[in-house]
Amino acid sequence: MSSKIQPLDAQHMRFAESAWHNLGKVGEIDHAESLSALDWADAYLDAPFFMHEAENPMYEPEFHEFENARTVILKHYPVAHGHHTPRYKLVQHSFLTRELLPKLIDAGLVQSIESIGTYSNGEAAFVSVRLPNDIKIDGYSEIHNVINLTNGYDKLPLSLTNSLGIVVCANTMQTNVLNVPSWHTFKHIGAPAELMSEAVSELVKRYYLGTEYSNRVQRLLDKKFVDAEFDKLIRQVIGDQPNKYKVHDDGPRVTRAWTEWDNKRNQMQWRYQEDPNNTHIIGTAWGALMAVQAYEQKDLRVSKASGSKNERHHRNVVMGKLPLTEKAVQALEVKHILAGV
To answer: Which of 54, 74, 307, 325 could join 4 via S-S bond, C-beta 3.0 to 4.6 A?
Structure first.
């Protein structure tokens, strides 16, 4: 199943402010209100059944229970998710809002609740909160420090990720771009809820990471980066340019792959050299990273099956999947640049 926003999800999705993705109901999310925001998507485990058609059409089909299997069924809606072994430990989506979120609130780590919602008819849930320690980079931008809590009823594990929101360009990315571990992930076996509770407690102890992030962004801003290096980075991110011509019986033709690659390169170069949001960071390693990230967030074409471009990017940020940005982090050797910070 592709992770898309379905009508059932849209009924319950909330965002504190109207954002670049234009998703969900917009308005301040009250702390007390947030506690029950995911109750509608709570579920129970039951044995799945399969139908066996009788050879004689005069007889009704028979239903048989799958042995040693469980499926997750929403309590309040006729929706089922996944097939699991008996080892599977169900963690309710409301665990995010009724157990983890209050821990962050009580510790004073929640400046605002940014979003609460689900994808795929309640299969995957998310909660995003903005921490009070915004990062201010002189002459550039304010950066919001955001915690994302996610849970799934099918393949998605119980996770905590940390992302950064760059105000000036509306870019959003995981903190691993700054060589800082950005998530805790627990599969639905053993004691995932207990382990996540411990992870949130550790997060409270690491609250002042915001200062560290500021130093790391500044180090990348101080690292000079020339146009030739960005041309090389493009190839490391999207691969080498394919052959322009293929010879057919009726003569050479420009291949579609070459044209698509050329368009991607031009879009990425525009983000790096001409995007007005990047004016103050051109010629820096941070500017190169932001250009790739902006391309992946705002320009990269997606199939209709994965939802809208904005929908897909929001899903990837809160669930920790931005492959092109990951490649750029590796190609820029961010870990080496930030050594000692």
So the answer is: 307
**Do 25 and 154 sit in the same domain of this protein?**
yes
Residue type, 237: V
Query: In the chain, how many domains are there?
Result: 3
In a domain, 212, yes or no: no
DSSP 133: -
Whether the Cβ atoms of residue 287 and residue 137 lie closer than 8 Å to each other = no
Q: Which helix (H) or strand (E) holds 73?
A: strand 70-74
Provide the residue range defining the domain that includes 159. 7-39+91-207
pLDDT digit string, tens, across residues 178-229: 666 657 888 998 999 999 998 888 777 766 555 567 788 888 999 999 999 9
120 with 143, same domain? yes
Q: Does 2 reside within a domain?
A: no
